[in-house]
Amino acid sequence: MIPKALTVAQLSDSHLFADRNGKHHQANVYQNLKNVLLAIKKQPLIDAIVFTGDLTQDHTAASYQLFVHAFEECEITTPVYYVAGNHDEPALLKQHLARAPFCQNSVIENDYWQVLLLESKSATPAGVIDEVECDRAGSIINSTKSQLLLTHHHAVDAGFFIDQHGLLNKAPLQQLLTAYPSIKALGCGHIHQALTLPVKLPHREISLYTCPATSIQFDVNSETAKSNGQPPGYQLFTLKDTGEITCTVFFV
After folding, report:
1. Nearest C-alpha neighbor of 190 from the set 223, 149, 150, 231
2. Residue ranges of the chain with per-residue pLDDT less than 70
């Protein structure tokens, strides 16, 4: 029997190195990732986990292997979906995240909801969601259901330095959101902060929920990447059969 609520945990931006003791802005990012995974594992009734990119910091194959190893060490059996971040190589993600619990399809679905994963990686640190990707999403959308869209890059400005690396071409995504009123919300990684940002459309407004990183949280008052000292975190979406969505942030 399909539950009336679809529960999805989102984690993002692990920034791993080949060495499990590697540090990103003085944080042991491998241990942080494991702490988040163990916290997610304690949550009841999670249907899926979505990782929204920036697995690696040093761009080594070994960092991808270490990511998989973290899930093995934490004995994660919940299905895990993913999109590429600006630091990631899609081919390496596909190669290393190829066996259970990892899933390579881009939609999570029950009787009431579709969670769609959109790729936003470009040739630069900034993001692009092109018309082809939006058309692909549109071909999957069932308008009798509600949708949550998850991607790496943020579609609206967050108000600090990361905006220079935001979504470059907002028009195709705006058109998709306008064409499908059944899309209820967006979620992203990339900004290393837990914020709720308004996405203003011609006839409505929806929320963009930004996921805290498992590595470090950015200081929004800094002009460059700098930790604000917050611990690693993740967020949990509860998608109810009524079309209502709640997003809860956890730091561990």
Report:
1. 150
2. 1-3
